[in-house]
Every structure is written in structure tokens, then in C-alpha cells.
Design goal:
Helix content is about 50%, strand content about 15%. It has about 300 residues and is α/β, with parallel strands linked by helices. A hairpin with a 2-residue loop joins strand 3 and strand 4. It is globular, with a radius of gyration of 18 Å. The chain starts with a helix and ends with a helix. The structure holds pseudouridine-5'-monophosphate and manganese (II) ion. Manganese (II) ion (MN) binds next to loops.
Length: about 300
């Protein structure tokens, strides 16, 4: 088999690629493992709508029946949301065997970057990326998302990373790996639920056009790796730092006590935080994803 036999583009995505129209990739771990049903499905469908309203074609990515899919039907999105954690969480390391077994996988940021890149999609919007976990000096728990950003030429738009992670160490790691981290209208790394983290950024850009120019330049020169655009949660949805940080500390304690490890850590913490905050963190999470999809669409339109 060849590469094209492993990839399945939706008709809308295939047409947009042929006609060089703006396209935004979207991930599916956030659907199956990042949010509860039915908010996960509602959010995924709304992301697609927001893309279209902003002139871009949405390409929600997943592995379905062993195919690397860019562009899903509403039924497939509903399936990924309803099945939830029964669907494999698919990161880079899981791709070959899921294909070989003809199985389904909800793709993480790392795996979605791989699918997007193979399909020829340059821009990808999500909520938050994985990173260096707190205590990583002991556990070595560092998300494969970070190494993917150093390898695969896709620009990821996110709201920074949750402080379930060690944000200063995450930035150090990205610096070592040579990943451009660009603040969209900010000098500071946003902390997902809040607009500030205290971690300064090297680059601030206020116009989508300049980011698009940088993406084009990177592709022109065959630059290895992607870029990370960090876009703060809109003011009116940002959470009280003390409230959310207490919830996060609490969730991390519970994860430790329950002995959660490896790929289960992030989904466990996300669910716990939603539970502890009585859903208010989920509302903020959804709002910031929509905002990222909007910015990603405007970047894709300028390519
Ligand atoms: N952070 C979030 N929401 C998410 C994730 C991270 O705020 O849904 C998901 C993304 O799919 C990300 C993955 O790529 O978790 C990272 O998992 P890990 O830390 O196991 O690499
Ligand atoms: Mn991990």
C-alpha cells in the first residue's frame, strides 16, 4: 500500500486542498478524552461551524477503521464523543499499530499534526497542548506533543497550557527543541484558564497575516518542525486564578493518590478539574477553543 491508501479526506477537505482554500485541522482526543458527553460533541460541531463562518474548511482528524482521516462526518464525531475513553487515545507511538489493526483512535495534538501534515494542512486549532508535567524531573512525563512540534511542519493555535503542567519547564523544553512560540496579542504565555502565567515569550504578533507569512516562509525553506501560537482566553471567560489553581492542585493530589500514570494522566486531571469546579472550567475551556478556531481560520485565510 502507499501513503494515499492510508489517508481518507472528506470530500469537502479534498476539494479545499485542490482549490487551495483555507483549511483548519482539529483534533479528536479533546472529543473522546478531553470533555464529557454531550458537550464534547456539541463543541466539536460548533468548532466546525465557526471555521466555516470564518471562511475556512474544518478538517477534524481521527483514525477510523485504521484510516488516517482528515474531515469527519457528524456521525463519526458523535461516535467519538459517545464512545469517549473506549476509543484509543492515539498519539505518535500508536499510529502504526492502529492502522495495522484497522482500529479507531482519537488523535492527540502530536498525532493530529502528523495526519494534518500528511494531508497537506498547515494550520491546526485546539484548546491546550500537552507539555512537561509537574514533577517531570522525577517521572520524566513529557508529552510527545512537544517533540512533534519540533518535527512536523504544522502551526498549532492553542490557549497555552494548563498549569497541570510545569509551564516554565515546558517553555524551556520548547526552546531546546527550537520551536517558535508566538504570543498572539500577548508577551506572556497564557495559562489556558487564565490569560497570564508570568512566563515571558520571545515573540509577540498582533496580526494573523504576519503569522501566515512566517508559516509560508517556513514551508518555502523546508524548515523542520512547526510553530506554536498561544492565544489567551478572552477576558470575559477567563477564570479566577486562585479558584482554578486550587482545583488543579487538588486534582493533581487525587491523581497521585489514585496512582494514575502515563497516557491516563492528562484525561484524568481534565475530568477531575471539571468535577471540582462544577463545570465552570468546562465553560471556559469551550470558550477558549472557539476563540482559537477563529484565530486559526483567520491565519489560514492569509496563507
Ligand atoms: N490539554 C487540554 N485538553 C486536552 C489535551 C490536553 O487542555 O484535550 C489532550 C490533547 O489531545 C493533547 C493530549 O495532545 O491531551 C496530551 O496528552 P499527553 O499529556 O498524554 O501527551
Ligand atoms: Mn505523558
Amino acid at each position: 500500500m502507499q501513503l494515499k491508501d492510508h489517508i481518507q479526506l472528506s470530500p469537502e477537505v479534498a476539494r479545499a486542498l485542490k482549490e487551495n482554500k483555507p483549511i483548519v485541522a482539529l483534533e479528536s482526543t479533546i472529543i473522546s478524552h478531553g470533555m464529557p458527553y454531550p458537550q464534547n460533541v456539541e463543541t466539536a460541531l460548533n468548532c466546525q461551524r465557526i471555521c466555516r463562518e470564518n471562511g475556512a474548511v474544518p478538517a477534524t482528524c481521527a483514525i477510523i477503521g485504521g484510516k488516517l482521516c482528515a474531515g469527519l462526518t457528524d456521525e463519526q464525531i458523535d461516535y467519538l464523543g459517545k464512545e469517549g475513553s473506549k476509543v484509543a487515545k492515539a498519539s505518535r507511538r500508536d499510529i502504526p499499530l492502529l492502522i495495522a489493526q484497522g482500529r479507531d483512535g482519537a488523535t492527540t495534538v502530536a498525532a493530529t499534526m502528523i495526519v494534518a501534515s500528511l494531508a497537506g494542512i498547515k494550520v491546526f486549532a485546539t484548546g491546550g497542548i500537552g507539555g512537561v508535567h509537574r514533577g517531570a524531573t522525577e517521572t520524566m512525563d513529557i508529552s510527545a506533543d512537544l517533540d512533534e512540534l519540533a518535527k512536523t511542519p504544522v502551526c498549532v493555535i492553542c490557549a497555552g497550557a494548563k498549569s497541570i503542567l510545569d509551564l516554565p519547564l515546558t517553555m524551556e523544553y520548547l526552546e531546546t527543541k527550537g520551536v517558535p512560540v508566538i504570543g498572539f496579542g500577548t508577551d506572556e504565555l497564557p495559562a489556558f484558564f487564565t490569560r497570564k502565567s508570568g512566563v515571558k515569550l520571545q515573540w509577540r504578533v498582533d496580526e494573523p497575516k504576519l503569522i501566515a507569512d512566517a508559516i509560508n516562509a517556513a514551508h518555502d525553506i523546508g524548515y523542520q518542525g512547526g510553530m506554536l501560537v498561544v492565544n489567551p482566553i478572552p477576558e470575559q471567560y477567563s477564570m479566577d486564578a486562585d479558584v482554578i489553581n486550587a482545583a488543579i492542585d487538588n486534582a493533581i493530589d487525587e491523581a497521585k493518590r489514585a496512582g494514575i500514570k502515563g497516557k491516563d494522566t492528562t484525561p484524568y486531571l481534565l475530568a477531575k478539574i471539571t468535577e471540582i469546579t462544577g463545570g465552570s472550567s468546562l465553560e471556559a475551556n469551550i470558550a477558549l477553543v472557539y476563540n482559537n478556531v477563529k484565530v486559526a481560520s483567520s491565519i489560514a485565510a492569509e496563507l
